[in-house]
Every structure is written in structure tokens, then in C-alpha cells.
Description:
Number of domains of chain A: 1
Order of helices and strands of chain A: HHHH
Distance between the termini of chain B: 41 Å
Shape of chain B: elongated
Number of helices of chain A: 4
Oligomer: heterodimer
Order of helices and strands of chain B: HHHHH
Amino acid sequence: MKEWFAIIMGASLLVLMIPILYRIIVGPTGFDRILCANVIGTKTAIILVIIGTLFDRVDMFVDFAIAYALLNFVGAIVVSRYFNRTVPLQAMEKAKAKPRRRAKA
Amino acid sequence: MIDTLASAVLAESANSPGWFLVHAIGVSMGIVGLIFFLGTAVGVVRFPDFYTRMHAAGKGDTLSTMLMLTGFGLVMMEDFSANSWLLLLKILGIVLFIFITTPTSSHALMRAAFEDDEMPLGEEDLNKLRKRRAKPKSK
Lengths: 105, 139
């Protein structure tokens, strides 16, 4: 029963990842892409536990899942720091140097 | 799908009746997590704006991951040996880690997008969108 639960969960996760992959490919801005990549990375931790169930080595694959979740978090933080201009929000509101571009509808 | 899972749970718990409740709770938590992830997928595709998409992805992703991992941890429990407890503890550690880090990374990404002049859609943009969507239907 553990095997059937794991197989059904893994297959549903893979099917539900397709719309998120669509957003990664189509996404208008880079932030959409990195956000959806973050979602898929979080789901990969679950899929690692599922693979561990199927191979009957969950104790080993759980460690992989921990490492993957950590790397995923570090990746998201690094990308957001890279795009961040590190201007304090109050200074930015005070300056209002240029009109902000609106997102395309 | 749920029928298959329920019959499998029943067949398994005939051997060890004490674990039926724990396994049933684990399986139902996994299914509820899948439903939340379905909400995330639909929201990520259909919402018009980066910030609304982030709303769907951040919340649904965190809760569905936590539910699914906890459900798996409960389904893994077979006996009260030290190995089972260690496994459950490790999985709960991942759950705690994800509970802390996914909202943090969502917040950092939102802040980066806001400072990169990515503005949310206003009222007139939404009206334009509605008009554009209404046109092909009328033709």
C-alpha cells in the first residue's frame, strides 16, 4: 500500500507540474520564472522522498531531500538579491526619480 | 483513485490493525496536499499579474508541501522502533525548514520585483483586459 500511495502521489505531482512548467516557459517577467522554478524545487524534495519509498531506502533519500530544500532556498535568495537594487524603501519613495513602468496587461 | 487507495489501506491494515488510523490520516493528508497543489497550479496559470501569481504560488506551495511531507512521514511509520522515529523526525525537520524558508524566499522575491519597478495591475489595466477578453466572444 505504501508503494501504491507513492506511485499515485508521484504521478499526480508530475502531472500538476506541467502548468507550472508552462509558466516558466511563457512567463512575461524573469520573476515569474524564478518563482515557478522555486515551486518546482520545493516539490522535488517531496518527489525525492517518494523515490526513496519506491527504492525502500527512505532513510538515505530523506537526507537528499533536506539538502535539496536547502539549495533551493539559497538559490531563490541569491537570485532575489541579484535583482535587488538594495535601495531602502523610504528613500525610494521620497525620491520618486522616475515614473514607474506599469506591467503590461 | 481514492477508492484504490482506500481499499489498499484496508487490505494493509488487516495485518496490523493498530496502524490503520495513522495510515488513513497520512493518506488523507497527502490527498488534501494534492488538492492545494492543484489550486497553486491553476492560480499560477490563470492570474493576470506577477503579485497575484506569487500569492497563489507562495501560499499553496507552502501548505501543500507541508501536508504531503507530513502525510508521507505518517505512512512511513510501521512500528515504534528507533529508526521509524528518526525517519519521522527528519521528515518533520524538512517540514519545519520549508515552513520557515518558503515564505522568506517569496518575500525576498516580492521585494526584489517591487524595487525592480514591476508594478501591480491597476483598475484601468484590468478593465482593458476584460474588454480584450470580451471581444472574441461577441464575434
